Amino acid sequence: MTQLYAGLVLYGLSCALILRGGLGLEPWNVLHQGLSELTGLSMGVVMTAVGALVLLLWIPFKQRPGLGTVSNVVVIGFAMDAALLVLPEPDGLAVRIPVTAAGIVLNGVATGLYIAARFGPGPRDGIMTGLHRATGLSIRLVRTVVEVTVVTSGFLLGGSVGAATIAYTLAIGPLAQFFLRFFALPEQPGGGTVVARGTPGRVILRR
Question: What is the pTM of this model?
Fold first, then answer.
């Protein structure tokens, strides 16, 4: 439980750092920022609302959320908004670049923490595995199609796409893979409910 909630809080902090870096956002946060600009709501509130809507899409695919799935919807957005209240706007590229890099690395740490806790993946991961099972397409292809759609939609709504978006896309897989193994817990009977079966190294690396 400690590992789960530490990971979710750090995930929200990592998102806030990347946003403050001002060099672009992670794919889903491009959409969240675009919707935030459109609605006037904070990004954390939008993130929570989108997560809840995505979770509803699990129903047709008969996916079963775990404690981590529901906590993901609630905690990350709250943690991100809280972090944005105290994190100052960095001034100049000399500060923005390391802030962004720190956010990307911390995102990998957070991903490893909360997924390795085995209380269930995030809602966006579940919809990808659901589409994979329903269509027979590979998870890699489903994930690519979903994230290209998300980024494009967010960009058209005013979300920020930039160097950090590319850096995150290239780095998050290896980072999360490493920290999943680093934080992996011993297998226990009656563990948390998961959607992506297999060892921690084979789960989808997203919230």
Answer: 0.85
Specify if 15 maps to a domain.
yes
Higher pLDDT, 16 or 61: 16
Tell me: pLDDT of 161 over 90: yes
| Torsion from C-alpha of 75, 77, 78, 79, nearest 10 degrees | 80
Query: What CA–CA distances, in Å, run from 191 to 68, 146, 186, 196?
Result: 12, 29, 10, 14
Number of domains in the chain: 1
| Helix, coil or strand: residue 159 | coil
User: CA triplet 103, 180, 200: central angle to 5 degrees?
Assistant: 140
Whether residue 189 is contained in a domain is answered as no
Domain that holds residue 150: 1-183
First-to-final CA distance of the chain: 17
Has residue 14 been placed in a domain?
Answer: yes
Report DSSP state, residue 200. G
- For the four alpha carbons of 64, 200, 72 and 154, in that order, the dihedral sign comes to negative
